[in-house]
Amino acid sequence: MEKRVITILGCTASGKGSLARALAQEIGSEILSVDSMKVYRGMDIGTAKPTPQQRAALPHHLIDVADPWETFS
């Protein structure tokens, strides 16, 4: 079975997250965030992280996985 990766790119506050969640729910997929700030715990203001309810509804990866003082790349 061939697997494909769908990439959603766009400007800040353009609706990428909403589109990704709708698409992931439609096709039964998961979300892999590659945002440089969403990876850090506690950086919730200004990052538009998905809500706990949104994260519970479908798997999200690479969100809140490092502390702000840690180097992550």
UniProtKB/TrEMBL annotation:
GO terms for biological process: tRNA modification. Keywords: ATP-binding, Nucleotide-binding, Transferase. GO terms for molecular function: ATP binding; tRNA dimethylallyltransferase activity. InterPro entries: Dimethylallyltransferase (IPR039657), P-loop_NTPase (IPR027417). The keyword Metal-binding does not apply. Pfam families: IPPT. The keyword Nucleotide-binding applies. PANTHER family: TRNA DIMETHYLALLYLTRANSFERASE. Belongs to the IPP transferase family. This is tRNA (Adenosine(37)-N6)-dimethylallyltransferase MiaA. It comes from marine sediment metagenome.
